[in-house]
Design brief:
Helix 1 runs antiparallel to helix 2. This protein has a 6-stranded mixed sheet with strand order 5-12-9-6-8-7. Strands 1-10-11-4 form a 4-stranded mixed sheet. The protein has a two-stranded antiparallel ribbon with strand order 2-3. It is an alpha/beta fold. It has 3 domains: about 60 residues; about 70 residues, no CATH class; about 200 residues, Major capsid protein gp5 fold (2-Layer Sandwich), CATH 3.30.2400.10.
Amino acid sequence: MNPKELKEKLKATLLEARAISEVAEKDGNRDFTSDERQKVANLLEEAGKLKDQIKAAEGDEELRKSIQALGADFDMAAGGQKQQPRVPNGKGETLGEQFVNSSEFKDWMTRVAPSGHVPESAKGLHSPAVEFKSLFGRKTLITGDSDTSAGAFVQTDYTGIYEPLGRYPLTVRGLVSMRRTTSDLVEYVRQTTKVAQAAPVAEANVTTYAGGSTEVSGEKPEASMAWEKVTTDVKTIAVWIPATKRALSDAAQIRGIIDQELNADLEEEFEDQIVNGDGSSENFTGILNTSGILTQAWDTDILTTIRKARTAIQTTGRSNPTALVINPADAETIDLLKDDQGRYYYGGPAEGGVMRVWRVPVVESETIAEGTGLMGDFRKAVVWDREQASLQVSDSHEDFFIRNMVAFLAEMRAAFGVIRPAAFCEITLTNGS
């Protein structure tokens, strides 16, 4: 296809993608469905390919025009040459003759081929630039740096690539239990005392036990246990950002970028709250600040310390740990551990698969501080989702209406609780002495 046909096809492709977007906007600025998202992605991919084809086709067209212009003095149809184009430099030399007869070229040939012949093994040869007189008898240097020269024809290549600053991977939320709630208050019952009175019992030998030395009552021990009711509030995490209507109209990507950034910030804050929330004001009570979790102090070395934490969870918390959450810097320390012969304990840089310490999977997270580890049965921590992350757009904030501005507001509502605190252990991974 020629450039015109390609441009028409590109236009139709972009219009089709825009039509899908407009449908979502008319439906209350909802998110794309999975089918719509896939279709838009395919259309944009096709548009990118068409753009490359247009660029190539237009380049070919310019080359054809240049060939025709340069061949004006040649018999192109017959394949025969009429006459070489000459430049009126006073010597009647062609451009090629001027080049090989120039002092710059001769000096260069003397250096690279003293015998007059360039050896076949020579590679990477680059001759010097040779300036020519123009038709008007003056030097002209065509450069891409000037808007009055070749630079006037150079068009900026807008790739459409957007590269964000990046965020740390969210890994902890995928470990905990997820449930739904339709209330603003979540209540659950947690056992505080377990039955521990079972004992062997001898058979009774009297019908009425009077306490005699030879009497056996045969009475079975009575059990006891205790519970506590725990209540946790559904809390809101939110963030907003202003934007001008013009920016939204001029940059097709900006709406998606805003959505992506705001939602990513919500998720990042929520993961931090799950681990570190201090319970004050509107903060969640995170695992590390939950009353009743176990602690393991530094003991000998990092591996010994982690192993003792696992023992505590099994014997005191009566749980099997599902993960060890540590900072990437601490994960690096473990990876680089070597024995007395200089061999890596964990296989070295060629080792693949999930990292494990004492058979417990290791999860790296920047949410947890360097020098602190969190091991536990993360199924005993629960997120109750009240309202998934949502995005609203409005111009009713302050004087935004008269300033043609809008506010993007992203928020989520959820509750969080640790239903068995002793199933978790905070570990000190460094020697503080």
